[in-house]
Amino acid sequence: MEDELNVTYITLTGHVEVQKYRYVYFLIMFTVYILIICCNFTIVYLIWIHRNLHEPMYIFIAALLINSVLFSTNIYPKLLIDFLSEKQIISYSACLFQFFLFYSLGSSEFLLLSAMAYDRYVSICKPLQYPTIMRKTTVSIFLGLAWLVPACHISVLVIMSADMKLCNLTLNGIFCNNSIYNLHCVSSRTRSIFGVFAVIVTALFPLLFILFTYTRILIISYRSCKTVRKKAAQTCLPHLLVLISFSCLCAYDVIIVRLGSKFPKTARLIMTLQVIMYHPLFNPIIYGLKMKEISKHLKRLFSQTKVM
Questions:
Q1: Membrane spanning segments where (predicted)?
Q2: Which of the chain's ends, N or C, has fewer CB atoms near its CB within 10 Å?
Q3: Which CATH number applies to 9-306: 2.60.120.600, 3.30.460.10, 1.10.10.10, 1.20.1070.10?
Q4: DSSP codes, the chain
Q5: What is the mean pLDDT of residues 273-288?
């Protein structure tokens, strides 16, 4: 513990041989971070400049990609600083803020995927009502709720944790996640109950809604003509791949925290890096390759770049 101006510092012990491989870690993670920013914002840029992509589905995709960049920005800059630092430490207040952004933006992804699932359901199952239901106002409300609801829930957990007494100043990880609860002297039953409630509202309910929605789409598509089935496959498959990917990484995060010290340190580091590296790059690749209109504009953009 370093106590300067009444600031409590937490030591991050999840790094493996960081003193020996600091520059290798830094180069790899810096490259990944730049790729995340470039890949995600390239798709967002295409959606922004092309009017035929100004539809609810593509607006939700742009929001999801921006969310991925914000999620990564919460982790990568601090991680890169830690690689080049003698001590891997973070103030408790900064740790709580990182925890807030990590779970708030992570939960937002589930809600954005729910909004996208509903958009596909209306488009495929109720095509005549689509323009009436999915208006700009509806899209704006969905986007606002997707970011606001998780932020409100996670902020309550942060406020509950802020004044709790710390008996441990060593965090078994490379950034602040649910492991911060192991720092407290006593566990709060109220916080645990509210945490379960927050998970149900921001993760479980959206996941069940998505599964229900795509099941309905699958049933209706199966009963419809070939054109409807093709449309469903083209637009729903990328969303399902992203959902599966993100759900697996959420399971990773839970496993890492629950197993704690029982898990080998190197394996835990690799699993943690999977959470922050794989998915933010997976999103733009899937939407860039699998979404027909985005793929078409992407090819045109690269062909123009080659000519120049």
A1: 23-48, 57-76, 96-118, 139-162, 193-215, 236-257, 269-289
A2: C
A3: 1.20.1070.10
A4: ---BTTB-EEEE---SSHHHHHHHHHHHHHHHHHHHHHHHHHHHHHHHH-GGG-SHHHHHHHHHHHHHHHHHHHHHHHHHHHHTSSS-EEEHHHHHHHHHHHHHHHHHHHHHHHHHHHHHHHHHH-GGGHHHHS-HHHHHHHHHHHHHHHHHHHHHHHHHHHTSPBS--EESSSS-SGGGGGGBSS--HHHHHHHHHHHIIIIIHHHHHHHHHHHHHHHHHHHS-HHHHHHHHHHHHHHHHHHHHHHHHHHHHHHHHHHGGGS-HHHHHHHHHHHHHHHHHHHHHHHHHHSHHHHHHHHHHHHHHHH-
A5: 82
Selection from 10, 16, 37, 208 nearest residue 99 by Cα: 10
| Residue in this structure with the two tokens 């890169």, named with its chain if needed | 80
Report the percent of the chain where pLDDT is more than 90.
Answer: 36
Q: pLDDT for 10-49, tens place per residue?
A: 899 888 888 888 899 999 999 999 999 999 999 999 999 9
